[in-house]
Amino acid sequence: MPRLDAGAHGHSPYLVNDDVVVITLSDRTVRDVIFNLRWRLEELLTTAPTRLVIDASQVSRLSSPAIAALLWANRHCAARGVRVAVRDAGPTAGLLRRTGLEGVLDVEPDRR
Asked: Which pLDDT belongs to residue 17?
């Protein structure tokens, strides 16, 4: 999968592969990635993906601003027919379920 430019931590959290864009979050990078998502989403969608996958396998919790950014991205993606999924939500799966976001975002089962 091609990676877009490297972030502040030396690797890019954005993977683009034909019809899927994967964004990897970690506890160390979640703030920067979520902030940059607002600026990078249009660029990521130029490849005409069918899905945007948020890999949350390395995140222990999602903050309110991170959830708000995911909802914002979901609205923009839905307008283009792009589905948004959260992969390997782990500890954040309970939060997504309790807040009703599990019905808004596709939550994929943990692969661990």
From this structure: 84
